[in-house]
Design goal:
This protein is α/β, with parallel strands linked by helices and about 375 residues long. It has 12 helices and 18 strands. Bound molecules: 5-S-methyl-1-O-phosphono-5-thio-D-ribulose. 5-S-methyl-1-O-phosphono-5-thio-D-ribulose binds next to α2 and β11.
Length: about 375
């Protein structure tokens, strides 16, 4: 995607340096950050300098590569993998990328591992771009069908940020919107602000602004009302982990939107690449680990004052206990379909294995 006319990926090599966009500074400052070693990569993921399931996976892959420059022994692979795996628990793309890196590295002689790790991380990044672009193509068909039937702009509601900032490029939930918009399909996006960290208000709105896509930021609690009043044609969200049975784990608040969509007979889609599917799980509500984040994300807000300074203010009555679960699980029965790089399927084991027959369990 372009910023001020210049194409960017969210993570790239600048010479020997791994460079990322610092998402904690958006939308008010566009700053790049250099990741020099394993610890830098782990801190960037933990503190959400980079975030979004696919980008977390790619950053972890580059983190492994950086670690191999220091220590490419078996113990080094083990240590790097454990350090990165401990950064955030919910997005399965992290585990997926680490397992792929470790298995490639273990097959190579120690002296070749650092170079090989950078090549493999670059492949994971390139594959992510291709997958997201394909998700965009498949999802855009849904949008253009609705636009044709309706004869006017398609109103999409999305939650959190599942755009290019959450991936390497294009995004998952936003990719169909970009592809449709670029093809001339009229699209308007309702952007949930996504408390507590405001990924919608800060990041999705930033992306849509930069790309010229018409959109409106709404308070998290407004979506149900808009759906009741016919202002939403469909919802598209991303996912941090989707089970083999089609349960979709995504940013906290997604489940409530799916309930409201179902009550109002509005299609509710999740868009995700294969690296987000956890084939080992079938009951998402029971089995997906939900990250509990710092209470300060709920008690405080950071933004920019009218004078242009960054400021953090408290918004919760001092002393009140606070809980901050970062994700929830939308059961498959509330999901109309899953948009993947291989096409659109039912949110079910049968649907997913139709697209990924290699994952079909032996009877
Ligand atoms: O806590 P975050 O900002 O990493 O959460 C991100 C989300 O929930 C996204 O919707 C999800 O990772 C899909 S990104 C394509």
């Amino acid at each position: 995607m372009k910023i001020d006319g210049r194409p960017y990926r969210t993570i790239f090599l600048d010479g020997d340096d791994v460079t990322v966009i610092d998402q904690t500074r958006l939308p008010f400052a566009f700053e790049l950050k250099r990741l020099a070693n394993l610890d830098d990569a782990a801190v960037a993921i933990r503190t959400m300098v980079v975030r979004g399931a696919p980008l977390i996976g790619v950053t972890a892959a580059y983190g492994m590569a950086l670690a191999m420059r220091q220590d490419a022994s078996e113990a080094g692979i083990e240590r790097a993998s454990a350090t990165l795996a401990a950064t955030r628990p919910t997005a399965i793309n992290l585990r997926w990328a680490l397992d792929r890196m470790a298995s490639v590295l273990r097959r190579a002689p120690e002296a070749a591992r650092a170079a090989l790790a950078f090549t493999e991380a670059a492949s994971i990044a390139d594959e992510d771009v291709a997958s997201c672009r394909a998700i965009g193509e498949h999802g855009a068909k849904i949008l253009s069908e609705i636009a044709a039937k309706k004869g006017g702009p398609v109103n999409v509601l999305t939650h959190c940020n599942a755009g290019w900032l959450a991936t390497v490029d294009w995004g998952t939930a936003l990719a169909p919107i970009y592809v449709a918009h670029d093809a001339g399909v009229p699209v308007h996006v309702f952007v949930d602000e996504t408390r507590p960290r405001n990924q919608g208000a800060a990041l999705t709105a930033f992306e849509l602004n930069a790309h010229g896509v018409p959109h409106t930021v709404i308070a998290d609690n407004a979506g149900g009302h808009l759906m009741q009043h016919g202002q939403v044609d469909l919802c598209i969200v991303g996912s941090d982990r989707t089970t083999a049975s089609g349960d979709v784990c995504n940013k906290i608040g997604t489940y409530l939107k799916a309930l409201a969509a179902t009550d109002n007979r509005i299609p509710f889609y999740a868009a995700l690449p294969f690296s987000t599917i956890d084939w080992t799980l079938s009951d998402g509500v029971r089995d997906i680990p939900i990250e509990e984040r710092d209470a300060r994300e709920v008690t405080h807000l950071t933004g920019r004052t009218d004078e242009g300074a960054f400021a953090t203010i408290a918004v919760v009555s001092p002393g009140s206990p606070v809980a901050n679960p970062a994700f929830d699980v939308t059961p498959a029965r509330l999901v109309t379909g899953i948009i993947t790089e291989r096409g659109v399927c039912d949110a079910s084991e049968a649907g997913l294995t139709r697209l990924y027959p290699e994952r079909r369990r032996a009877a």
